[in-house]
Structure formats: structure tokens, C-alpha cells
Amino acid sequence: MSLWNYIPPEVLFQFGSFTIYTYSVLLGVSVIVGYLITIYLAHKYEVVLKRPLVVHVDYLFFWLLFFGIIAARLFYVLYHLDFFIPRPWEIIAIWHGGWVWHGAFLAGLLVTFLYTWRHKLPFWLMADIITPGLVLGQAIGRWGNYFNQEAYGLPTSLIWGIPIEFAQRVTGYEGFSHFQPTFLYESLFSLVLFIGLFITSRILLFRLYHRTSRTQARFMHFGIIFLSYAVLYSLGRFLIEFLRIDLVPVIAGLRMPQWISLITMVVAMILLIRRLLRDQKESDTLSV
User: Fold this and answer.
1) Which of 136, 115, 118, 142 lies closest to 127, judged by CA?
2) Which of 3, 79, 113, 247 counts the highest number of beta carbons within 10 A?
3) pLDDT value of residue 287
4) What is the block-wise mean pLDDT of the chain (288 residues), using blocks of 10 residues?
5) Any bridge partners for residue 70, and if so which?
């Protein structure tokens, strides 16, 4: 028997024809919180490295948000062409939900690379600054799935199973009432990941500030925060996807998000090991 029988409202406020969706409010909160964390870290790195970073983070954050939303929605549309082809007007109805995180992630990588290349900034530095705020934003934003009754998992009799209205149940599962709250699993996982990455970021900042030769060691740590996130989040997402039942392309028995997570995890792991080895090598050189 489930202890969770509350079905949340999709609409938070409505004033005549003007509607404010809970999903949109949560998305806005996640963006604001993520931005504040990012600016905080940018300021800390700016003080340590003695170079302007906050102004670049402001500009970059805007472009990440703009193209991230477009890419996340585009991936979702591509996953559900059978729904959107006869209803093209629904493509822009982002307040109804329907985002694919991997779309935003890949777009973010490209935007960050192009911006740092254009302004001659270290790519790994900017990636590390943005990552903790990004993860905390994910932890908050995932609750939008709960209010939209989407991205849930298999039917369950566990006491924390969530009720899903009949109209929102995936085809083939209409006879079940409670499902795995996969949004909650990913939200909690992202929250724990944020705490770990934020603490690690502060430790690396402390080490960077106390380097004997700051000029030679200036960029040696950059990339560790971002790559650790890419590995750990991809692993968590890969496992959670085994529980999800929303319709996405399946290849060789694995869901498309699982394939993207696997590829991301392997590539990030290789890059992380290389950077850790480089860090150790440069540390040994400086200690000679």
C-alpha cells in the first residue's frame, strides 16, 4: 500500500486565460538557483586566478540556457515524432513538459567550447565552474516531472510509489495505479552529486590558491569536476533508465538515453583518467 496518494496540480495559478504551470515555475527556480551557485564559484575562481570570469559566466549562462532549452525540446520531439507530426503546434508548448536532458547536455558542451574558444578562455575551467550549479538545477527541475505526471517508472507496490492518473499512464500500463517515482531517484541522486562536487570544488580551489608555483599549476585541476559529473551522472542515469517506461527508441535492448549515457561515461572516464595522471605528473615535477 502506497503512502503517496496525492496527485499534484499541473497548473499552479490561473488568472482568466493566463495560466502559470507548476513545471514552468520549477524550471525557473532551478535556473535561478543554478545561476547563483555558478556566479558564486566564478567569483571564487576569479579571486584565485586574478582574471575576469564572472562577466563571461553571465554571457555564457545566457547562451547555455537559450540553446539548452532548444536542444532539450528538439531531442524530445525527435523521440516522439509520431505525436508531434500531426500536432506541430505542440512543439513549442514547452510548459507541458517534454525535455530530454542529453539534448541540453550536448548543446551545452558545444556552446561552452565555442564560447571559450572565441574568448580564449580555458574550456575545462568554465566547465568546472558551471557544473555544480547545473547539477543542483537538475535536482530541482526533476520535480517538474512529478507535477506533469511524466518520466515515471514501472508499476510498484512499494510504499513510496506515486499515483498516476489514468489519462497519463503509458500504453499497456493502464491497469496499474502506482508507479516508481524515478524523478525522485534522479533528483536525490543529483542532490548528493551536487554536494560532493561542490565540496570537491572548494577543496581544489584551496589547493590551487596555496600552490607554490601558481603560474605553472594554474590549470592542472580544471576538468576534474565536470568529468566526474559526466561519469557519475551517466552511471546513475543508465541505471535509473531500467525502471522508466516512457516511450523512447530502443536499440539492442537498451533505451536511447542508456546508450548516450554509456558513451558519455566511457569518454568522460578516459578523459578524467588522463587529466588525473597529468595532475600527478605536474605535481611531481613541481615538487622536484
Assistant:
1) 115
2) 79
3) 45
4) 74 80 89 95 90 92 92 85 80 73 91 95 94 95 90 93 92 93 96 96 81 50 91 97 92 94 96 81 50
5) none
**For position 66, what pLDDT does the model report?**
92
pTM above 0.70, yes or no: yes
Q: Are 156 and 164 in contact (CB under 8 A)?
A: no
pLDDT of residue 13: 81
Confidence at residue 2, expressed as pLDDT on a 0 to 100 scale: 60
- The whole-number pLDDT of residue 280 equals 60
Please provide residue 23's backbone torsions phi and psi, each rounded to the nearest 5 degrees: -55, -45
Distance CA 76, CA 34 (A): 23
Phi, psi of 4, deg, nearest 5: -115, 90
**Secondary structure (H, E, C), the chain:** CCCCCCCCCCEEEEECCEEEEHHHHHHHHHHHHHHHHHHHHHHHHHHHHCCCCHHHHHHHHHHHHHHHHHHHHHHHHHHCHHHHCCCHHHHHCHHHCCCCHHHHHHHHHHHHHHHHHHCCCCHHHHHHHHHHHHHHHHHHHCHHHHHHCCCCECECCCCCCEECCHHHCCCCCCCCCEECCHHHHHHHHHHHHHHHHHHHHHHHHHHHHCCCCHHHHCCCCCCHHHHHHHHHHHHHHHHHCCCECCCCCEECCEEHHHHHHHHHHHHHHHHHHHHHHHHHHHHHHHHC
